[in-house]
Write a structure and sequence with these properties.
The structure is a homodimer. Chain A has about 350 residues and is of the alpha/beta class. The first copy, chain A, has two domains: about 270 residues, Spore Coat Polysaccharide Biosynthesis Protein SpsA, Chain A (Alpha-Beta Complex), CATH 3.90.550.10; about 80 residues, no CATH class. Helix content of chain A is about 30%, strand content about 25%. A five-stranded mixed barrel of chain A has the order 6-9-7-8-10. A four-stranded mixed beta sheet of chain A has the order 12-14-16-17, covered by helices on one side. In chain A, helix 1 links the parallel strand 1 and strand 2. The N and C termini of chain A lie far apart (about 50 Å). Chains A and B meet through strand 15, strand 16, strand 17 and helix 11 of A and strand 15, strand 16, strand 17 and helix 11 of B.
C-alpha cells in the first residue's frame, strides 16, 4: 500500500500583538525578521521544504496579509495561499484547509503548523513528523507534538500523556488530557510529575480523520465547511466562502475538537522549540552576555542585568535597571518589565480605543 | 549714604550632562525648555529682571554658547555676556565677572546665580535678595542662601548655621560649616538636627569683598584675574584673557573660598527651590497623577507607579514598571531607574570614548 502524502498547512493569520511595537496589523510577528535574516514564516516554510516527504506547503491567512505573503515569502505560489475571509480561530481555519486538500487528493495527510514558532534541529523535527504521519495513517490518530518541559512555564498549554505507544523508533503516547496555561504552582506540579509535555501547537492527521471528528463534535461547522468545500474550483467558490464563513462562530481547535476527541496521541519532540510569543520568550531564546543582557541594534546597558534592547531605530541606553525589555521602533518605544511582557496587550487595546490606527 | 548697586551674574557655562539625552553640548540644560515654555536661563533672567533693585544682568558662559545665548535669550545684550575661554569651575568664573563689574562701578554688589535652577515665589526671592544685599554692604559679609530641607536629600550640599543675625525682617545666620553631599545616614542626621540648610548655590557679596577673599585664599588666581581685569575695555583684553586664563587651575568656589573664608552668613530662603539637577529631581518638581506618574509628550503608562515619560519624539509606552524615567528624543532614548539617575554620566562617558560626538 502506498503511504498517503503529507501536506503542510501553515496557519499565518495571527496578529502577534504581543510583539508590539515591532509587530503591526500590516506586519504581524510571522512577517518579522526577529531571529536571523528571514521572517518567522519564511523560516517555517524553509523548515518544511527541507522535509523530503512533505508533498506541498499551504499557507492560510487573512485577505489583508495574502498579498505580502505571496510577494515576500520564497517558495509559496499564489494558489497555495488559502484565504480565510476573517479570523475565526483555529478550528474553522484547519477545516477550510482540510477541504482544499481533499479536493486535491482523496487521501491527504495534513500537518498543521504555526507560522511563527522557533524550532532548532532539522533531523529530530523531520523524524517526529515521520512518526506522526505513520501514526496518523496506520491508526487514524489525531497526532500532537509534545515538548519535554525544561521549566515550569506558565505561558504554554500542557499535554498529560498516558500509555506509551510501541514504536520502532521515537516516543509517542496516548493523550490523557489537555491542560491550559497553568498557574506557577500547577506548572511546578506538572514539571515534577514527569507525565506532562508542552503543547507545541503542531498537529498531524488524515484530513478525513479531522473532518470526521468535526462532524461529530462541531456538526454545524462541519456542514458549512463541506458546503464551502463543494464549491472549491468552481466559479461560486469565493462568494460561497464569503457568505457562509461570516456565519461561522469562532472556535479553537483545543476547545472544539482536541479536548473531546478520541484517539489522540502525542509524539515526544526531540527538537528545541519555543513559541516566541512575547518579548520575554524572545529574550529567552537569545544568547546573552555575562550580565544576561541582550542588545539588538544600537544599545548601551550600564549597571543592569537581564535586559533586552531591541532597537530598529536609534541609540537606546538602559541605566540601573534589571530584567527590562526596551523595544525602539521609528514611531513607538516600549519599555516593559520582562515578567509583565504579556500586558503590552493593554497598550495595544488603549491605542485601538483612542483610534491611533497608525500605531497598530 | 547711597546703597551700592546690585548686579546679577548668571553662571551659564555648565553642560548639564545629567539631562542627557535631552541636553547636549550645543544645547545644555540651561537652554532647554523643560519647565514651562521658556528655557531655564530665560526663567532665571526673567526672575532677576522682576527684582527692582537689580541694576543689570550679566551672563558668564563659554565661547560656544555665547552666540545662542545672545540670540535666544530675551533681555540679554551682547555686552552683558562675559565669555570665559574655557571652563575653570566656579571660582575663576566669578572672579572674572567681579573684574568686569569693578570696571563699570567702583562699589558693585554682585549676586551670583546658577542659570538652571527652579525657584518658585517672587516675593520671598526678592526679599531674600534684599536682605542679602544689605548684609553684604553693611558688614562686608559673603552671603549664601540656605533652603530649609524638606527631606534628607543626598544630592545637595548643606550649610550648618550658627548664631542668628539680628534683622528687622527675615532670617539670617552666621555660617558654621559647609558640608558636601552627605550619605543617606548623615543626611538624616542633618535633617533631624535642625541646624542645617540646603546650599542653594546662590551668593551675594561686594565684588571687593570677594576679591579680598580671593587675594587671601587664592593669591595666584587673584593676581591673574587682576591682570586680566586691567585690560578690560582695552584692545589687548581678548588676547590677555585667552593667554592668562589657560594657565588658571580649575577651582570651585566652595573649596577655593567659602570653606576657608571668614564672615560668611546664610539667608534663610522662604522660596521653593530645586537645582533640577537630574531626571529624578526633575520628576520631583513636577505634578504627578494619582499613581505618581508624569507624562510629558506622547506617552502611555500601564500597570506602573512613580514613572516619568519625557518624549519629544514619539509614542512611549511603559508597562509593568515602577520609578523609571524614560526620555525619548529624535536620536536617542534613555531608560533609567529614577534612583540611579546620576549614573547616566556613564553613558555620556561611553559615548565620548566611542567618539559618537553627534550624540553628545
Amino acid at each position: 500500500m502506498k503511504t498517503p502524502k503529507l501536506y503542510a498547512v501553515i496557519m499565518a493569520g495571527g496578529r502577534g500583538t504581543r510583539f508590539w511595537p515591532l509587530s503591526r496589523n500590516s506586519r504581524p510577528k510571522q512577517l518579522l525578521k526577529i531571529i536571523g535574516d528571514t521572517t518567522m514564516l519564511q523560516m517555517t516554510v524553509d523548515r518544511l521544504r527541507k522535509v523530503k516527504f512533505v508533498e506541498d506547503i499551504y499557507v492560510v491567512s487573512g485577505p489583508d496579509l495574502a498579498q505580502i505573503i505571496g510577494s515576500e515569502i520564497d517558495g509559496i505560489s499564489e494558489e497555495n495561499i488559502i484565504i480565510e475571509p476573517s479570523g475565526k480561530n483555529t478550528a474553522p481555519c484547519i477545516g477550510l484547509a482540510a477541504q482544499h486538500l481533499l479536493k486535491r487528493d482523496p487521501e491527504p495527510v495534513m500537518g498543521v503548523f504555526p507560522s511563527d514558532h522557533l524550532i532548532v534541529g532539522h533531523r529530530p523535527f523531520s523524524g517526529a513528523l515521520r512518526i506522526a504521519r505513520d501514526l496518523a495513517v496506520s491508526d487514524h490518530h489525531l497526532v500532537t507534538f509534545g515538548v519535554v518541559p525544561s521549566s515550569p512555564h506558565t505561558g504554554y498549554g500542557y499535554i498529560q500523556f498516558d500509555k506509551q505507544i510501541e514504536l520502532s523508533e521515537g516516543k509517542a503516547f496516548r493523550v490523557k488530557t489537555f491542560a491550559e496555561k497553568p498557574t506557577p504552582r500547577v506548572a511546578q506540579r506538572f514539571l515534577k510529575s514527569g507525565d506532562f509535555l508542552w503543547n507545541s501547537g503542531m498537529f498531524v492527521w488524515r484530513a478525513v480523520s479531522f473532518m470526521d471528528a468535526m462532524e461529530h463534535l462541531m456538526p454545524e461547522h462541519f456542514r458549512v465547511l463541506v458546503e464551502i468545500g463543494d464549491t472549491i474550483g468552481k466559479r461560486n467558490y469565493l462568494s460561497t466562502l464569503n457568505d457562509k464563513w461570516s456565519f461561522l462562530s469562532p472556535e479553537s481547535l483545543d476547545y472544539g475538537i482536541l479536548e473531546h476527541a478520541e484517539n489522540i496521541c502525542v509524539v515526544q519532540a526531540e527538537f528545541e522549540w519555543s513559541d516566541v510569543a512575547s518579548w520575554n520568550s524572545y529574550y529567552d531564546v537569545l544568547s546573552r552576555n555575562g550580565d544576561g543582557n541582550v542588545v539588538r541594534g544600537d544599545g548601551i546597558i550600564v549597571e543592569g542585568k537581564g535586559n533586552l534592547i531591541y532597537s530598529t531605530d536609534k541609540l537606546t541606553a538602559v541605566v540601573g535597571l534589571d530584567n527590562v525589555a526596551v523595544v525602539n521602533t521609528p514611531d513607538a518605544t516600549l519599555v516593559v518589565s520582562r515578567d509583565r511582557a504579556e500586558e503590552i496587550k493593554k497598550v495595544v487595546d488603549l491605542l485601538k480605543k483612542e483610534g491611533r490606527d497608525e500605531l497598530l
